[in-house]
Design goal:
- By secondary structure, the protein is mostly beta strands.
- The strands form two sheets. Strands 1, 2, 3, 4, 5, 8, 9, 10, 11, 12, 13, 14 and 15 form a 13-stranded antiparallel β-sheet that branches.
- A hairpin with a 3-residue loop joins strand 4 and strand 5.
- The longest helix is centred in the first third of the chain and has 19 residues.
- The two termini are 38 Å apart.
């Protein structure tokens, strides 16, 4: 191969690598944010869909597909003058929750990537108290999405989060039958740490999973109206993701029908995650423009 042609090819490959390194990626796996970012003035679109009916009801309702669903739509924008800074808005049908905020990537090393994220959520429904907690709640969430690259194809994520207000804030938590009566209200917010794992099998296909621990304050509490002795549960999501040109399609099974931070990490939203056997299907579709 002539030297000139060889040099041209090398430059083209390097340029292609630089472009990939600077490409935008919507910072979302299933429900937890990643430390990715939208670059320049790029725009990202996310469509989420969660089926409410559990898969265990089998074929009579097409494994939950005949049941109710919660759909959500979000937009994320790159802010070119501040590298790594993104603004986002998201709206989901769960209590008509509207979320907006900012995310700033603060670290991007070979094996570690980190961002800080602040958002406000507002359940745009009439405020009222139900058996399993309040609706019409407004609050804020602060998160620090951190990703650790064990290898190029295995990424472990840790997402510390503080939710200022939850559905049981300022209420007296119910306790399982036979337990010591609780006379102290559940004041203040909730701190939790979401965990995630991504394993890429090919450039397009990957396994994705997330774990939402039960906050310690709910370890000896029961959702309102529950009398069978069960307590709040741990949450999880797991499935597969397929990436093609500027699109990512993700299908999961999860026992957490929600999608926002206050819904999946607070531990008490809608009575908390369902028992693990009561998991249902969900999917995300993201697109970068």
């Amino acid at each position: 191969m002539p030297r000139k042609t060889s040099s041209t090819l090398v430059c083209a490959l390097l340029a292609g690598g630089a472009l990939r390194a600077e490409s935008s990626e919507y910072p979302l796996v299933v429900n937890l944010p990643t430390a990715e970012r939208m670059q320049y003035w790029d725009i990202g679109l996310a469509f989420t869909h969660r089926f409410v009916t559990p898969v265990k009801d089998h074929g009579k309702d097409v494994y939950g597909l005949d049941g109710y669903t919660y759909a959500g739509l979000g937009l994320m924008f790159g802010i070119k003058p501040v590298p790594g800074l993104n603004a986002f808005i998201y709206r989901t049908a769960d209590n008509k929750t509207f979320t907006f905020g900012l995310q700033q990537q603060v670290l991007d090393l070979d094996r570690v990537r980190m961002a800080i994220r602040a958002e406000r959520f507002d359940e745009v429904v009439t405020a009222t108290t139900t058996v399993i907690g309040k609706v019409g709640v407004t609050g804020a969430v602060f998160q620090v999405p951190t990703e650790i690259f064990i290898t190029d194809d295995v990424i472990f994520s840790v997402v510390p989060a503080y939710i200022t207000k939850t559905t049981t804030t300022d209420t007296i938590l119910a306790v399982p039958p036979g337990a010591q009566p609780n006379t102290s209200p559940n004041t203040g917010g909730v701190f939790n740490v979401g965990l995630g794992l991504r394993i890429s099998f090919t450039e397009k296909f990957s396994f994705v999973s997330e774990y939402y621990p039960r906050p310690s304050k709910f370890s000896k509490a029961a959702p309102g109206g529950v009398t069978d002795g069960t307590t709040y549960h741990q949450g999880f999501s797991a499935g597969v993701s397929y990436k093609t040109f500027k699109h990512r399609f993700t299908v999961v099974g999860t026992n957490v029908p929600g999608t926002t931070a206050n819904q999946v990490l607070s531990g008490d939203y809608g009575g908390g995650p369902r028992p693990s056997s009561q998991w249902s299907l969900g999917f995300n579709v993201t697109r970068v423009f």
